[in-house]
Write a structure and sequence with these properties.
By secondary structure, the protein is mainly α. It is about 55% helix and about 10% strand. Strands 1-3-2 form a three-stranded antiparallel beta sheet. The longest helix is centred in the N-terminal third of the chain and has 22 residues, at about 10-30.
C-alpha cells in the first residue's frame, strides 16, 4: 500500500479525502483478488443416460472412445456435467449439419 498524507482545511474535506482513500484502497485490494473457478458439478450415470437419451452401455462406450471422462470419487463413479453438456452440444451441431440439405 502506498503512503498517503491527507491535508485538509476543514474536517469535512478531511473526511471526504479519507473516504476516497479508503474506497481506492478497497478497489485496489478487490482487483488483486483472483476469482475462483466455478464449482464443478458431478452427476451419476443414470442422469447422464437421461440427458443423452442413451443406455448405460452406451455411456461406457462413449467413455472408451474419449467423448467424455468418468471420475472416481471414493468408490463411486461420476461424470462432469460440463463435459456432458459440451458433448451434447457437439452432437447436436453435427446432427443439424447432416440435416441441412446441400445446395447443388
Amino acid at each position: 500500500m502506498s503512503n498517503t498524507i491527507l491535508f485538509s482545511d476543514t474536517p469535512e474535506h478531511f473526511y471526504e479525502q479519507l473516504r476516497e482513500f479508503i474506497r481506492q484502497s478497497i478497489q485496489q485490494e478487490l482487483s488483486s483478488v483472483t476469482r475462483q473457478e466455478e464449482e464443478i458439478v458431478y452427476i451419476k450415470k443414470p442422469e447422464v443416460c437421461r440427458m443423452l437419451r442413451v443406455s448405460k452401455p452406451t455411456i461406457d462406450s462413449h467413455v472408451e472412445r474419449g467423448y467424455y471422462r468418468k471420475y472416481h470419487i471414493g468408490s463411486r463413479v461420476f461424470y462432469n456435467k460440463t463435459e456432458i453438456l459440451a458433448y451434447l452440444g457437439r452432437t447436436n451441431q453435427m446432427q443439424s449439419m447432416r440435416a441441412t440439405p446441400k445446395e447443388e
